[in-house]
Design brief:
The complex is a heterodimer of chains A (about 200) and B (about 130).
Chain A: H1 2-12, H2 55-76, H3 83-98, E1 99-100, E2 103-104, H4 106-109, H5 115-119, H6 123-128, E3 132-139, E4 145-152, H7 156-165, E5 174-183, E6 189-198
Chain B: H1 3-34, H2 37-54, E1 60-64, H3 66-74, E2 82-85, E3 90-93, E4 101-104, E5 114-117, E6 122-126
Antiparallel strand pairs in B: 1-6, 2-3, 3-4, 5-6
Chain lengths: ~200, ~130
Amino acid sequence: MVKNLKNHLAFAFSEYPRKRLKYKSTRKPFWHFNPNFSQMNLLGPKKADSKLLSVWWFVVLIVILVGIVGGTLLFYSSKIDMRLLEGEILSSRIMDCIVDNGYISEDFLENKLDIFNNCGISQDIINKSSNYYLNIAVYDFNSNLIIEKSYGNRAFVQECKVGAAMVKAKNFPKCIQKSTNVLNSEGELLKLNITAGSNSEYKLE
Amino acid sequence: MNKKADELLIEQIIFIALNIFFIILLLLFVWRVGTGAATAEESYAKKIGLAIDSLKPGTELKIDISELYIYLEKNKIKDSPIIFDYSKNIVNVKVSSGKGYSFVYFTSLNPGSVTIDETNKFLSIQS
């Protein structure tokens, strides 16, 4: 039954009708669905017939094409992930800018320091591109907050936690948190926390 | 000549020609993607962007970009391989006929602080 059906279908899609069957036309294009398939020959096609340019051959070509093109594109389109590195660089830069020899800038503590001008960071990129996040917080010895400044995309606070919790979070930002002990001008011990996040991989796409 | 044999021969020739054409198309595609120009564009744009961001004030950095010139010659492009947009903080590396690859750096860079030495094929960044 199955064999009959297979032969039936093979005959239905055959490109050339066989001579021993009485057809109106002797030659049809390969894509032509043979209307005389009810007259199929259960013994299969004759040896002299050719089935090179059949629909199935083009299906095979398309499958090969899709496979090779897909594989090649997948291999070469993998991006170089820079998000963690950018977060690291941004936090280090802020650290170097507001801390000098272990002493934190008094201007920063008094909220007089313009981070962007003094640290040479573009305000437009951090605040308007929504691909960066920066949080600087200073605590005293008893963990009381002295000053906290946030710039950029505040949504990264939650998104970084989600991204860190998931095994594969492709479009989530990546954040770096740095913490260090610093001194103020009076020699009091303070704790400086810097969180920097980046999602710059997707900013131009 | 035998008409049937003639038809079969033509069909065989068409079949072989189509297959060869198909294989050549595939090889061309793989070769085009695999030449590495796109990968080089992306990696150099990101390298330069990160180098700018990590530079400390008063530092001068030189990056060897001779590899980019090899791609330029190969792709017959006469433009500069690296273009800076100081207003938008974008570095664009383009060594093929496409748009190239752009990367955004967050450092405020003064116009003219990046120069390209075309004879020695070096990129010089002054922070």
